[in-house]
Protein 1
Amino acid sequence: MTGSVLITGGAGFIGSHLADELLRHGYRVRVLDSLIPQVHGPDAVRPAYLHPDVELVKGDVRDPDAVRRALVGTHAVFHLAAMVGVGQSMYEIERYTSVNNTGTAVLLEAMVQAGGDRKLVVASSMSIYGEGRYLDGQGRVYDQVQRPLEQLKSARWEPCGAEGEPLSPMPTPEEKVPTLASVYALSKYDQERMSIIVGNSYRIPVVALRFFNVYGTRQALSNPYTGVLAIFASRLLNGNSPRIYEDGLQQRDFVSVHDVTRACRLALEVDQQQAQVFNIGSGVKVNVLEVLQQLCRQLGCPQITPEITGSYRAGDIRHCFADITLARDVLGYQPRVIFQEGLAELAQWLEGQIAVDRVSEAHAELAVRGLTL
C-alpha cells in the first residue's frame, strides 16, 4: 500500500521521523502543523530536520478550512497533533481540551465530509492507563490501583492492595481498564474513543496506538513538558541537576522513536476488519533514576547528581510498562532499538544542541497552584 498520507502535528518530534519512515517506503507525505512556539521556538519556521520532500501546510488542527485543504488527495491520516504533558495539562485545562479534543472532532468531521476510504491512525498514550497492572501475593490482578493522598503525603510511594498488602507491577495489556489521572490522559482517551466511535459509524478504518515513553533525536529540548529524557537532557546540557519526583524508582517503558514510527507504518498497512488498539513500547521496564544515570554516562557528566525531591506531582503514577504481545501478533511489530543504543544516538545528537532550561519555571507553575506535595 502506497499513496499520499497526511500527518497532523507532523513537523514535531515523532511526526517528522514518521515522515522519514513513510518516504523511505514510497509514500507521499503532507504535514499539517501550527508550529507553536513552545515546541518549535519563537520564529515558528519550518524545522531544518523536516525532510525536503514533505509538503508542509501551516495550520491549526482546530481550523476546519485548514484541515479540509490538508486532506485533499490523501489516502490515509496519522493524527499526532496534540498538546503534550501531564503537568501542564493540570492548569492549562482549556488549551489541552481545545487542541486535543476539539482538534480531533474537527479532523473527524472533515474526514466524514470528504468521504472516501481514508484510514486513520491516531496517537494515543499509555497515560490513559493511569497506574499499570499489578499483582498481589496470591496472583490476583489489580487494574484500578490508586495511591491515597495521605499515603503520598507520608512519602510511601508504592501502591498497596485493599488490606495494605504489597503489590507487584506487571506488564500492562490493552485490556487493562483505563484509570485517568490527568487532563492530558483524559484528552488522549477522548481522542482514541472519539476516533473509534466515528470510525465505526462511518466505516473509517481506525487504529489507535498507545505510545509509551518515546525518546530520540529532534525532541523539543526547551519545552519543559515534553518527555522525561528531553527534560533531563535540557538540565544536563546547562550544567544543572535534573529534578526527580518521588524517589526515582518509578518504572517506565522507554521506546525509541524509530520503533514507534515503524509501528505507525505497520498499523497503516495492516489489513483490518474493525477498529483496533495497540500498545507501542519496548516491552522492557527501567526506573527513572537508572535512565538518568545512563544518560549522564553517555553525555560524560556523571558528576552531576540529581535533585530527588521526595515530592509528588499531581497526575503522576508509580509504575507502568507495556505488554506488547498484541502488536507483535497482529502488526508484526518487534522493537529493534535497545535502550543503550538509542541513548547513544540521542547523546550524539545532543552534543550539537542548545537547550533553554525552563524546568524550574515549570516546577514553579505547578507548585504555586498546589499541584505538588
Protein 2
Amino acid sequence: MTQIILGENEGIESALRRFKRQVIRADIFADIKKHRYFETPLQKSKRKANAKHKRRKHKSTFRLK
C-alpha cells in the first residue's frame, strides 16, 4: 500500500508527483495490468513459456557479443 504524508507547506502537485513515483517503484501498475483480465491456466502457461523463451534468446545473444 502506497501512502503519502503531506508536509506543512507542501503543494498538492509535489505530493502527487511523489505519490506517482512511489506507485511506479512499488510496481503497482504492473500488478494491475497482470490481473486486469482472467487468464486460463493454458494461457498462463503459454505466457510463461514465451517469457522463458525470450529470456533465453536474450541471454544467448548477449553472450555472443
Protein 3
Amino acid sequence: MQIDIIGSGFAGLVAACFLAKNGHEVHVHEKNEMVGGRARTFSVEGFTFDMGPSWYWMPDLIDKIFEDLGEKREDYITLERLDPSYRVFWNDRSYTDMPASMDALYRVFDDLEKDGGKKLKQFLDDAQIKYKVGTEKFLEKPGLSLLELIDVEVFKNFFKLDLFKSVEKDVCNRFESHKARSILRFPVLFLGEMPHRIPSLYTLMNYADLKLGTWYPKGGMQQLAQGLKKIAEKHGAVFHLNSPVTSFTCANGKVTDLHFEGVSKKVEQVVAGADYNFVEQQLIPKAYRRYSPEYWDKRKMAPSSLIYYLGVNKKLEGVEHHNLFFDEDLVEHGKQIYDQPDWPDSPLFYACVTSKTDPDVAPEGKENVFLLMPLAPDVEDNETLREKYLDIMLERMERHTGQSIRSHIIYKRSYCINDFKQDYNSYKGNAYGLANTLMQTANLKPKITSKLDNLVFCGQLTVPGPGVPPALISGKVAAKLVMKKAATLKKGH
C-alpha cells in the first residue's frame, strides 16, 4: 500500500518506521527544513540549540519503540543519566539538587521535612503501580471503544489509580513542606491544568522523574529524530522536506489527492502527524470534518511557552544542566495560564544549560542557554513582551547565581506563540497539546480515526497524549491501525 504521512514530528517518524518496515511504500511530507517537528535544532556561531523538548524521560518506553522495530536504541543514540537530575531554586535564595541515587534522594526529602524520605518511598511505590498500569494498559490503546478499558489488572488496581483524586490532594495529604510539595507538583506543570484539576493517576510522572531518572541524548534531542529517520529510510521511506500540504481533495468518503504548492498527488492512505486541528479544520473539506470550531474552542489546552536561545561568552557558575526557578508562586502563575489567561505577573521558569553536559553544543569557554517560561496559549505575542520577560528571567538567574549574564550574551533568539503557529500550524500556538484532564483522557481525546476512511491521525492532540514518549507511541498506534486495515484488504482480495 502507498502511504503518505503528513508531518515528521516524533509521531510521524515512528509511523513511517513501522509502516515502511511492514513493506509499505511510505512518503513523509514535512513543512519545515528538517525532521523532528518541535524537536528541531539549529546551529549558529558555534552554538547548537534544541528548539523544543529538552527532557529525556521514560527511557524504557523509548527503548521499547526501537526494540519493536527490531533495533537497538544504543546503535543510534548515546544516553547519559544526569546527576543531579535538576536543580530547584527557591524564594529564600537556597536551592535543592535532585540526585540520581534513590538513597540520596530520600535524604534530600528527610531534610525537607520529618520522615520525608519514608513518605517519598511510599509515594513512589504507589506512583509505580500507576506507571505500570498506565504505560502497559492504556498507552497503546487507540481509544476507539470502551471495551479497550476492560482489563483485569486495571480493575484490580482501579482504586490505586486515583482517577478521582487530584494530584494536589494526593501530594498535600502526604507532604507538609512547601518545597516537597513543589517538587512533586512540578511534572504536572506542563500537563495543562492546575494540580488540583489533574487526576492523581498522573503522579506516575513523579515515578518517571525521580525513579527512572532524567537523561541526555548526546548531541541533543534531535538525535532521537535523526535515529528514527535513519530506520525509516533503511526500510525505504522517502522524506520530502520543505513540502507543506495545502489542501485535500476528497470524494466518496476518502482522501483522493494531497495538494502542495503548485503540485498535486494521488493518495491511497494518509496518516496525519501534523497539528490535528489544522488538518481537520483547514485541510479537510467541511463535509468530512468530525468536529466543529466550537468543539475545538472548548478544548482545554496545555500551555504555550516563551523560549529564548542564548549564547553566552563565558562559563556560568551555580547552574546545572536543568534548572527550575520555583522562586515565585506556582498557583498564581497557574491561574494566569488557565483561569485568567494572560502574561504572568511573577512567572516560574526553566533554564537548560546543555553545555554543562555536552561540550559540542557551544564553543570552548562559552555556554548554551535555553530559557522557557510556560504561558497561556493564544494570548498577545510581540517583541516588547518577549524582551520584558527575558529581562525578568535573567535578573532572577543573576540574583540566584551571583553573577552577571546579560552583559555576556553574544547570541539571542526568541520563540513564542506566533512562531508555534507559523512553524507548526499549532492550534492557539500551544506547545504541549491538550491538557490531561479527566474529560480529555483516553477515549475522550479527539479520535485517532477520521470520517474519511483512509485518514488516520497521530500526535499530541490525540491518543495517548502530549510528551515525547506518548507522541512516539501515538505513531505506533496509528501505524498498527493502518497495517491492520491493509491486512484485511489484502485478505479480502
Protein 4
Amino acid sequence: MNPVARLSLAALRFVAIAALLFATLLPFAWMISTAFKRNSEILVFPPRILPSHPTLDHFREVFFGGTVGPYFANSLVATAVSTILTLALATPAAFALTSHRFPGDAGRHIGLGFLLLRFLPPFAIIIPLFVLMRSSGLIDTVFALIIVYTAFHLPLAIWIIQPAVSQIPREIFEAAAMDRAGPLRTFWSVILPLLRPAIATAAAFCMIFSWNEFFFSLILTTNKAKTFPVLVSSFVTDSGPDWGTIAATSLVAITPIVVLCVLLQRHLVGGLTSGAVR
C-alpha cells in the first residue's frame, strides 16, 4: 500500500472513531451539563454546553427530597440478589452442559435454547406473569423483581460462561479424575477458579441489565418496590419534564455502574478476549 493510500486510510479511521466517540459521549456530556444548569438555562436557544451559573439545586432535590433512598435500596437489592442467584445457577449449568456427554450433541442445542429464551419480548409474557405474581401475593415486592431478573438473565449468563468452560483443556479434567476428584470437587476446586473472567463478565452484564431495567419494575410494582429507572420517569409530569432533576437523578443512577465497570475492567477484558462472549 502506497503512503498516500495508507494516510487516507488512517485519516478515515480517525474520522470514524471520532464520530463514534462524539455520538456516544455527547448524551453523557449533555446530561452532566444539564444536571448543573439552572432551569432557566436548560431550554435556551441556542443551547449552551457549559452552564453559565452552575447550581447544585437539582442534586439537593435528589438527595434531600426524601424519595431517592427507597428507590436506590430497591434497585440495589434486586440487582445484587438476582445477580448472585443467576451466577449460582448459571455456572454449574454451563459446566454441566459442556462437560456432560449428551446424546446427539444435545448439549449445544440446549444451550442455544436457553439463549433463545433471552430474546423473548418482555411484553409477550407480562400479562400471565402479572397474574401469577398477583395470585402469589408478590406484586409490589422486591422479591418479584428478583425472580424475574434471575429468570431473564440466566440464559445470557449461561451463554457467556459456557464457551469459557469449553476452552478448558480436557487434560485438566483428566488430571482431576486421576486425583480421585468427583464432579463436584472438580467443579469447585479446579474449574471455578479458571472461570473467574467469564463469571465477572456475566456478573457485569447482569448487573447492568438489572440496574437499568424499567418495564418489569413499572408493571409489577406500585409504590414500595419501585426502582431507580421508575424514579427517573416520575419527574415527567403533566406540566412537563423536570429536565434538571432528571439529569441529576440519571447521573446518580449511572455512577454505581461506571464504578463497577472500572473495578471489573481487568476481568471483563480477560473474559471478552478469552472467548467468553462469542
